[in-house]
Amino acid sequence: MTNAGKKELAVRLFFARNHSGSVPANKTVQQLYSQFMATDAGADVSYGLFNGVVKKMRADKIPTKATVVSLEPAEPKTPKAEVI
Fold this sequence. Notes:
Order of helices and strands: HHH
Largest sheet: none
Number of strands: 0
Number of helices: 3
Shape: elongated
């Protein structure tokens, strides 16, 4: 998060103060943006920027599951020529 600008930090601070640092699953982005704009911090943040930060925050919370796959060596096949 070192490349976050001050507007992104303002959005993340909003979630830290109002939603325990995470994006609530039971609210739409429009509802959250309206709540954000009602605060003083929302003055210069566009809906697109807000939505982008929400997407980043939601992506950070999605657990990834590793799957073990067994591989078998491939058998070489003799190429067949087709006569036309």
